[in-house]
């Protein structure tokens, strides 16, 4: 047996990483859209990793429902081939797959048909004592008929949970309509809305950093923090899902959810405890403190762009409207930069700069907390200007937390300028802290054990839409067009001006 295979087998036999501290989960998991992109790319790899890490009981049942005419064997072959190429699956073991695949059952049927689901219930889901998790890996347009069919098939029970993913509408109104369809049948606490950024390990660690240590809290306010920057920079383009992306654009696809959720975690008050309601209440307060933007503010504080052909990592790439499946012309933004304000006591006067875009120079995401300059420098010119302390919470590609500090260069030269040094607060190298589950592993695990802390409550989504709608309606009214930027750059030059105007710079990935 190879060492790696041995390691995998050992993990399941003896317990491993975060699984050592948890009970193996046992429930019925129904994935509707079980043959789709989301299920194949994210859900089965995450479930497989949970299995390998000994988090799932051998009694667990995974029922994949889709319309495609596939035999059980053909379906399993498909899942296997996706697992083998998935980045989330660090080591694929044929033996672990053999065991894991016995949990999966494929059912070809139309999930909007109550009779078909009723048959599934009679065949597979008779035990009403077992928790039932239904994952809607489908477009929201069919949430309503699916929920209706689940109800008529008697699959809506007090121990049923329903999982949904963005896009949940394209504005507040359409979100409320989708939500109404869900909550007509399920109670709010049964609805799990996924924002996969909340499942990322560093995001979790931000909470630990802020609330399990005392040294930062006294500094975490407008007295010491100059500005906060949140960047989610993608090197990839919209190819492969152009049509979907073109309907959404960067504001709806990324800012309304991922970036605003990161902002909430950075800005929220300490919750009284880690119970879901306490955490979500604090996030909601932040969203409701976001300063609405009038015409003038939108003009001054927002920039949108669309990429043109260029090169990313030395490879030529097409422009947005030349991507596969693209139309020759589009007004959709692939880049957004904006300056936001959280109008409360803690953050008054501290700008939050947000930016995200496709086909940018690098693929990375981070939150940068930039502290104020020292009030009075006793070092004269030895302390160069523009060297504030920065706390950098990086979500990807590397999951790190670092602190930039000024330090003396060793030696006798009394005139040597001070140097910036980076204190690495990373946890990834510390094996005592275990290995990092990917976001979907954590989130699926939490749904199955009925912990909604990392899921977004309806009022949060609504509040985020309210703020975003305000900006989008001004864009629309003024006919704002995205500015072109070359693929492989950092976006339109006005995005640099947006922050430079305030005497600041975007923190670039080194
Ligand atoms: C998704 C967006 O929610 O997040 C995609 O729809 C984006 O457009 C993706 O590429 C980014 O996620 P991650 O985890 O790769 O940063």
Can you put this structure into words, describing what you see?
With 510 residues, this protein is of the alpha/beta class. It has 2 domains: 9-165, NAD(P)-binding Rossmann-like Domain (Rossmann fold, 3-Layer(aba) Sandwich); 198-500, Dihydrodipicolinate Reductase, domain 2. Helix content is 35%, strand content 20%. It has helices spanning 3-14, 37-52, 72-85, 94-101, 114-124, 143-152, 172-183, 201-211, 242-267, 276-289, 295-301, 439-448, 458-478, 493-500; strands at 28-32, 61-66, 104-108, 132-136, 160-165, 191-194, 225-233, 302-308, 310-312, 315-317, 335-341, 351-357, 364-371, 390-396, 400-407, 419-424, 483-486. A 9-stranded mixed β-sheet has the order 16-15-14-13-7-12-11-8-17, with helices on both faces. Strands 3-2-1-4-5-6 form a 6-stranded parallel β-sheet. A two-stranded antiparallel ribbon has the order 9-10. A hairpin with a 3-residue loop joins strand 14 and strand 15. The longest helix has 26 residues, at 242-267. The two termini are 41 Å apart. Mean pLDDT is 92; it is low at 1-10 and 13-21. Residues 196, 234, 253, 365 line the site of 6-O-phosphono-beta-D-glucopyranose.
